[in-house]
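EI: anyone free to look at a 860-residue chain?
SC: sure, send it
EI:
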Amino acid sequence: MNSPVGSDDLRSVAETLRKRITDGRAQLREKFDAKPDPARLLCENAELVDGVLRDLWSAASLPPNSALVAVGGYGRGHLYPHSDVDILILLGDEPERAARQRIEQLVGVFWDIGLEVGHSVRTIEECLEESERDVTVQTNLLEARWLAGDEELVASLLAQHRAALHLPSFFIAKRAEQEQRYNRFNDTPYSLEPNCKESPGGLRDLQTLVWISLASGLGSSWEALAEQGLVTQEECAELNKSERFLQNLRIRLHRLTRRREDRILFDHQEALARSLSISATSTRRASEVMMQRYYLVAKKVTQLNALLLQNLASRILPSGLDTPTPIDARFCKRQNLLDVLDDKLFIKEPSAILDAFLLLEQHDELKGMTARTLRALWQSRGRVDAAFRRNPENRRRFVALFQQPQGITHVFRWLNQYGILGRYIPAFGQIVGQMQHDLFHVYTVDQHILQVMRNVRRMTMDEHAHEYPLCTRLISAFDRNWLLYIAALFHDIAKGRGGDHSKLGMSDARHFCEDHGISPEDTDLVEWLVGEHLTMSQIAQKSDLSDPDVIRGFAALVKDERRLTALYLLTHADIRGTSPKVWNGWKAKLLEDLFLTTQRLLRGDTPVQAKGLAERQDEARARLRFYGLVEGVERPLWEELDTVYFMRHDIDEIVWHTRMLYYRPAGGEAVVKARPSQVEQGLQVMVYAPDSQDMFMRLCGFFSRQGLSILDAKIHTTRHNYALDSFVLMDPSGDENYRDIVPLIEHDLAQRLRNQGPIDKPGSGRLSRQVRHFPITPEVAIRPDERGQHYILSVAAADRPGLLFDIASVLAECRVNLHTAKIATLGERAEDTFLISGPELGATSAVVRLEGALLARLQQ
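SC: here you go
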């Protein structure tokens, strides 16, 4: 397979070498399928390419003082199925014109034979200059490997490169490079579509350690590091095992996609699981089982990476360790890191494990643990067992972790990272690395929980008070606010067990609180919060908050102001912890409105007083005077508006509508006004026009054509049969300058409504990848409200372009009147609620027909 080719004509050998590459890789695939051995495949693939490149070099007749060098991952002697082949053409001096042409021909043939080559052509001086400027070039040369040509020239480059390398600077640069890489991936390995090479816990974490080890002269294998005492034999075995898993995964990902693809996208997860012979369980897809394995490996890699980086730093940066400062009889501080005085401390005194984390919270100058402490912690994690959990002092210590004034976010992340949290609370251990395919969570269950705890913590911090001032004010006055951390820890802990996770989690939370000596009153609160943690968001986003019965029912559920406050704070933190795309200012306003209205009702107001009808009107009048409108000018318009209008719209909207319409209370031509949203980025649009059955459909079609999504719609019909509709719109791409499109919306929409031309139909759009691979079965439910005068229509479906238009068109076709629309988009999932009426809806058959028509349209 590696016999030399003597012809001077490069093109004449291209076809032969292409076949050699194709046949050789086919043989490697067959061998791998018969007996998967990732390391062997990577080495043999590199050897196959080595032989082909050497034969090409021989045929190229390049100057004798030149050489072909493998660099980067290929220089390491590892080559993935579709990775770039990184090479350096090293020259003794600047090439003459003929030699330059031969080099260009050679590079062209590399591509002709099917190799994706990343190449550079440099002299030794140029290599050293680039290496000094760019740590990436410096790193690539660390693993440089002679392939062909002048071997002494390559040896000279490597010797000069080694002599020029300043080890402390290289270490600091690689550590900073890793920090920047972590930042690009939000400092977590637990995103639902991780990059198995670049994400935290991926192959790059392992490669970084090898590069630093090579630069230090400590060897290029985990066994070599073990011989140097930098890792234990157990850690060496874990590093080898983790590396094999990640290599295997990346090899199969390349083969599956037939390209250099390192992202574990939803598109590939099921096929990857099959390739790895991973089967589904009764409650989880095969892809979910596979991804949980991946997350556990990534977690282990980040642990070992942190440990090894500290050990390497102690070798490379000896001045970095200062004189130890005693903390107590068991711990000291070294370079702002917590250090144990006895390596066997956690074995002898398992309770010291929790004491170590308490010290991290109590000493804000401590930024983590030394490598020695981390290793001791890792080796003793098995001591956190049933007896440990039953120990009253350990229970006291664990509760104290929630009660400290600082450090809670970091400490609970570390507790999870080092496997302590899942051992102390076994139910938490079951959801570590568990995926959530609900189309709006972007983190695994354990990471979402920790994110929610972090959001609660931010509410208590003065430096974040500007973010959500009401939350900060409420939590600062909330007695024993640490109970919210416990509720956050348990709110999703029962996911993946089957059944209602809220109800199952209530039992876990109660057992925890009772076991840990939390008072019956506080236990009831935590248990109730876990059971109802979804309720407030559902009511705020799906119910008509202008309906007194809705507010009255919610107030009856929460019973008192303490529960209301606790649920509001937990709900706020929970929604913000799902995904950056799910939370927005509009949802914050809905939650705040529900909280404030219910708070007033619990303080003794009637439902109408709680909504503040009279106060709203009085304040609206006062603001109208501020704009120069004389007293009483609003009366003709307001006489056409009923109580529901004033309860449904906030004061700012009432003032805006009145200023735009007070001089035309009797109607006339259609009026459209738009302005940037007063709540958050987005656009508010008001439409005032003669009402019609297809009005909502027309508006949905128009907005969709403009590329705008409807976040909220308030559909109101005046006493003289005019539509006074309000919308909150947003550009899903986030690129729109809303102020610039105000004139377009106002002119074009008004003109279309006046002319009553053809209805705009939204263009077809593509479903997201997540929806394609984890589809949602549409759900439609219609039920009467408590008075029996209206009906509540609930729709759940995968979000897509034109969804709202399709719903509106069915309602128009069935001659159903629409009164309000609550649009809730949770990531890729739409959960919309409509208040509707119609003369035929009293008949069951009509309701069944409407549900069937909606389902048929949604499934198209």
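EI: Residues 425-609 form one domain.
SC: 👍
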